[in-house]
Design brief:
The structure is a homodimer of 201-residue chains.
Chain A lengths: L1 H11 L6 H9 L2 E5 L4 E3 L7 E7 L2 E6 L5 E7 L4 E2 L2 H6 L6 E4 L3 E7 H10 L2 H26 L2 H11 L2 H5 L2 H8 L3 H20 L1
Antiparallel strand pairs in A: 1-8, 2-7, 3-6, 3-8, 4-5, 4-7
Helix pairs in contact in A: 1-2, 8-9
Chain A binds a DNA duplex (30 and 30 nucleotides) through α9.
Chain lengths: 201, 201
DNA sequence: CGTCTATTTGAATGTACTCAAAAGCGGTGG
DNA sequence: CCACCGCTTTTGAGTACATTCAAATAGACG
């Protein structure tokens, strides 16, 4: 039941619900296990659940008209991953979600969430705060994409999530910051060379 | 009192609050008038209010380290514009908001919103839905930025908001889609030439 | 060890940027 | 009504950065 505890802790980071409400919510959802490369969601289908990652790591990505994949979000323990557009509006998802490692998640259907919101409206605040956090992250990312160089975006990303370097393939990071894997490779090399020459001088 | 009516209608598009709650909410906020080029918010200050645009038009933009401005959002009648990051977290805003025309807005402070949420928790849902809509829009935009050409982004933007072409300067649109004004000018010319030659053939 | 995938490197190409200048447009005052 | 001013848009030329395609190298895993 340790998955459920992680979930409880996640709620308590944001709101102080009644014990009853928390129990109810923590009992919802379905624990699911995924192996590396399993898909939690396939682009074009409707997202029927929101995934709360208990352990492991996933990526959410969009595959464009030219079959190029663009990573939109990574998800580790204690993160929530979902194509919220699809989930809340019932339209086909613009994203796929794929496990990058062995991953355990708790899946919440729309009904689960409706149920808790109807019974314990205190959770409206929880979901609003989650939404807010997701929005803010997106906003920050957009600013970065518009006003920073690829190198700056890379440095900022890995300084904010040092996990990524060790757990995620480099081409996935390249995709996240919006450049080709070759470009990221070159950028890293340029950084190393710059560092060497500046140390010598 | 027509400003307030627009606000009521906006609420009713999303939730069915008690009459009491709606009256309370519709009475909140302060009507404010801005002239062209007036700033509703200056980057670096804390956003003390969320603006509900009653008439006119504004842009929210980020000014980067090189003093380049990047338009993040436009706002017309019946839209909400705010640096939500700053507003909800109390940190200095990463955006400025500027009136592009004579503009009337209703301004809601954080206290206003806290008050209505405390008294009428039904409004949690309203703000969650707003947040959701804002998030979804951001998500769509990010996908576009990563996977579409500048030309496609331009075409999609003006087909979605035909208002823009007539009411907003071209360089503001260029900034929104993330390219220089020169680049947009060239793209438009290329489109016209393509059209001419395809008509002739 | 061999296979599969990820990363690196190279070369040619493309797209958008910067800087600079010209042309277009709208409003104001003489 | 015209001349001028300020601002936007257009055009040109040179440059920077990332892309694509292709090939070589390096790592991971069975």
């Amino acid at each position: 039941m340790t998955e459920r505890d992680l979930l409880r802790a996640n709620v308590l980071k944001r709101i102080q619900p009644s014990e009853e409400g928390l129990d109810y919510f923590a009992g919802l959802g379905k624990v699911q296990h995924y192996r590396k490369r399993d898909k939690l969601l396939v682009q074009g289908e409707v997202a029927r659940f929101e995934a709360f990652i208990v352990s492991g790591c996933v990526r959410m990505y969009h595959s464009d008209a030219r079959q190029h994949e663009h990573n939109m979000q990574f998800g580790f323990e204690d993160w929530r991953v979902c194509d919220l557009v699809s989930f809340y509006s019932g339209t086909p998802a613009h994203h796929s979600i794929e496990a990058l490692e062995e991953t355990t998640a708790i899946l919440f259907t729309h009904d689960d969430i409706d149920n808790v919101l109807t019974r314990y409206p205190e959770f409206e605040r929880y979901f609003r705060l989650l939404m807010q956090a997701a929005y803010l992250a997106g906003q920050e990312r957009m600013i970065g994409a518009l006003s920073q160089s690829a190198e700056q975006r890379y440095l900022e990303l890995i300084s904010r999530f040092p996990l990524l370097e060790s757990r995620v393939a480099q081409h996935h990071i390249a995709s996240y910051i919006g450049i080709s894997p070759e470009a990221l490779s070159r950028i890293k090399r340029a950084m190393i060379i710059r560092e060497r020459t500046s140390l010598k001088s």
